[in-house]
Specification:
The complex is a heterodimer of chains A (303) and B (318). Chain A has 303 residues and is mainly alpha-helical. Chain A is built from eleven helices and no strands. Chain B is an all-alpha fold and 318 residues long. In chain B, 79% of the residues lie in helices and 0% in strands. Chain B contains 13 helices and no strands. The longest helix of chain B is centred in the C-terminal third of the chain and has 38 residues, at 223-260. The mean pLDDT of chain B is 82. The chains are: A mainly alpha (303), B mainly alpha (318). At the A-B interface, helix 5, helix 6, helix 9, helix 10 and helix 11 of A face helix 1, helix 6, helix 7, helix 8 and helix 10 of B.
């Protein structure tokens, strides 16, 4: 009973973290049959469909966007949605639809990379904390607590101001912020495994710690890691969009939902709602898609 | 019990010390040359050196860390580069403003979230449950800057019923200040509602399935008594922890909301300091947030112990 608040269900990072509530229940093997169950869940199919749509936009968007997202046509600035410009144009006469389509790119590059980085580092750290325990666990546990004490957006500010905003900086900063959070979940999952027979057997066979951790424990805590990964992915979208909105993420003139909203929301007072509404819907749909996927994976694993 | 408290306080101080190391590392070591970072790549070498000397960043790292930490204990948070004045009064004023906004958001969201979660649990699996859970999840997925903008358009621009800036201005009465804070508080409520409701729902369902709940029903207590005396008292314990940990998240949300509604709080202070590369201000703001979060979790732990005798006994064996 060192710290009551360090319960694995209470990820303090708000919205997308909601999915973390039931993480540690999942120690079952991921049988192929389980994955087929996933394909029968409408929530999963809807989420995966929306995500796939944005992935296609991110990769091939520049090929099918009706206009060049950077092309300015100052004569047709701030025009309302019409047959030519379905989503209207922004103050520089750029096509909002094209910017929304191509704007999927940076956020869909940064968020998976950052989440993968955080998951790899966090898994390694969590395995070591849970397996070795002792001083390592105590020291790493304190660092985890300290990072938790600072909201992701604010700790990102600190590092991005020091390093300058770029895609690499964002990936590294978000990845490092996620590391302790993921480590905490993995550690909790490892602790439930630690006293099981297969581990005693592995130890008695004289297997080295690295092999026990990565070959024996890792496959068994994989479901927990997978759920944590999708939860973090949703939160990464939220965080990157927020950072871009505040001017510390993707930099203009690169099309990006968050920074486009920041550039245009003052136009709302003049009634130019389309410049803000469509990027906002794009962000909301992407976060919702990731959450739907998270939710269905969780339900299938706990079924 | 005393041992537990001592241990808990010791861990808290350790956590705060690590927070200070992170802030010092990010604010003072990573930028390399703060003078260059502030003045930009085209400034003359001599003026960069002069600024570095003025900021005291050309001293050895350990000296800098010790004098920074020593200053903190004397209430000296450093000197703002932007304002050429001590940081502390700015941080203090901003913190007070943020506490007002955060308190309002909590006063709205905590009862709403708990009531929503308990109702969802009582009707688990039925339409009411679905509506509450899906609404909570959907509201939580919308970033504050999106919901904030929508609220500004609806209530501020179209209906013109509420002010779109958070500050009522100097000399405004409490009531007027309160009116200005309603709109900024709502995006925070949106994001937190789903999470609190979800925890309250999970706790209530667990309590409903327990033996003591079944016994209470079977011995013929009316349903309202069972819920009030047996279910709620047990189901709300985990929710308290969640509310405390959400404080940290709430502060992250404050950055966006305070910037959007132009409110002079701690989030806005950090945002402006980050834009101006005012490292002293930025470090002080981030550190204050770390302290607030750590104190909030401590308060939640103490509250839990006060409310739950089982933890008191468990704690004394710790």
């Amino acid at each position: 009973m060192t710290d009551i608040t360090a319960d694995p269900g209470s990820a303090p990072l708000g919205p997308a973290a909601g999915g973390a509530v039931a993480v540690v229940v999942t120690t079952q093997r991921m049988a192929p049959a389980r994955w087929r169950l996933l394909l029968r869940r409408p929530t999963f199919l809807v989420g995966a469909g929306i995500l796939l749509f944005w992935v296609v936009c991110a990769i091939f968007g520049h090929l099918f966007a009706p206009f060049n997202p950077l092309a300015q046509q100052l004569l047709s600035s701030n025009t309302a949605p019409s047959g030519t410009h379905w989503f209207g144009t922004d103050p520089l006469g750029r096509d909002v639809l094209s910017r929304v389509i191509v704007g999927a790119r940076d956020i869909l590059v940064i968020t998976p990379l950052a989440t993968v980085l955080g998951t790899i580092l966090g898994t390694a750290l969590g395995l070591a904390m849970g397996y070795f325990g002792g001083v390592l666990d105590l020291v790493a546990g304190r660092i985890v607590e300290a990072v938790l004490a600072l909201p992701a957006v604010i700790i990102s500010f600190l590092f991005i101001v020091a390093l300058g905003p770029s895609i690499t900086t964002l990936v590294i900063v978000i990845g490092f912020i996620f590391t302790p959070l993921i480590a905490r979940t993995v550690r909790a999952a490892v602790l439930t495994e630690r006293h099981l027979d297969y581990l005693s057997a592995a130890r008695l066979l004289g297997e080295n710690p690295a092999r026990v951790m990565f070959a024996e424990i890792l496959p068994n805590v994989m479901p927990a890691i997978l759920v944590e990964f999708t939860v973090r992915l949703g939160y990464a979208v939220f965080a990157i969009a927020t950072l871009s909105f505040l001017g510390f993420g993707v930099q203009p003139p690169t099309p990006d939902w968050g920074s486009d909203i920041a550039a245009n929301y003052s136009g709302l007072l003049a009634g130019y709602w389309w410049q803000t509404l469509f990027p906002a819907l794009a962000i909301a749909s992407l976060v919702t898609a990731v959450n739907l996927i998270t939710d269905s994976i969780e339900q299938v694993l706990n079924a | 019990m005393a041992m537990f408290l001592l241990r808990r306080l010791g861990l808290m101080i350790l956590t705060l010390w690590i927070v200070s190391l992170i802030v010092f590392f990010a604010g003072q070591i990573l930028p390399g040359d703060p003078g260059r970072a502030i003045l930009g790549p085209f400034a003359a070498k001599s003026s960069v050196d002069a600024l570095d000397t003025q900021l005291g960043v050309n001293r050895p790292l350990l000296t800098r860390y010790l004098s920074w930490i020593g200053g903190l204990f004397h209430g000296d948070f450093g000197t703002s580069y932007t304002y050429r004045a001590a940081v502390e009064p700015f941080v203090r004023a901003a913190l007070i403003n943020s506490v007002k906004l955060a308190l309002l958001a909590f006063v709205i969201v905590v009862p709403l979230g708990i009531i929503g979660g308990v109702i969802a649990a009582l009707y688990a699996g039925r339409a009411v449950d679905r509506i509450i859970s899906v609404t909570g999840l959907s509201l939580a997925t919308v970033p504050e800057f999106v919901s904030g903008i929508v609220l500004i358009v609806i209530f501020g621009v179209e209906l013109k019923v509420l002010p779109v800036t958070a500050s009522a201005g100097a000399g405004a009465g409490d009531l007027s200040q309160f009116r200005h804070l309603i709109l900024p508080a709502i995006p925070l409520v949106f994001v937190l509602f789903g999470y609190i409701a979800r925890m309250a729902r999970a706790g209530t369902i667990e309590a409903l399935n327990s033996d003591y709940a079944r016994t209470a029903v079977l011995k013929g207590l009316p349903q309202t008594t069972v819920i009030r005396r047996h279910i709620l008292r047990n189901s709300l314990l985990p929710t308290i922890t969640v509310i405390a940990t959400q404080t940290g998240y709430l502060i992250g949300g404050l950055v966006v909301v305070e910037t959007l509604f132009n409110y002079q709080g701690i989030g806005n202070l950090i945002f402006k300091a980050a834009q101006a590369k005012d490292f002293a201000m930025l470090e002080a703001g981030v550190l204050v947030i770390g302290v607030v979060y750590v104190l909030a979790t401590l308060a939640a732990d103490l509250l839990l112990i006060a409310l739950n005798p089982r933890l008191r006994i468990g704690a004394s064996h710790d």
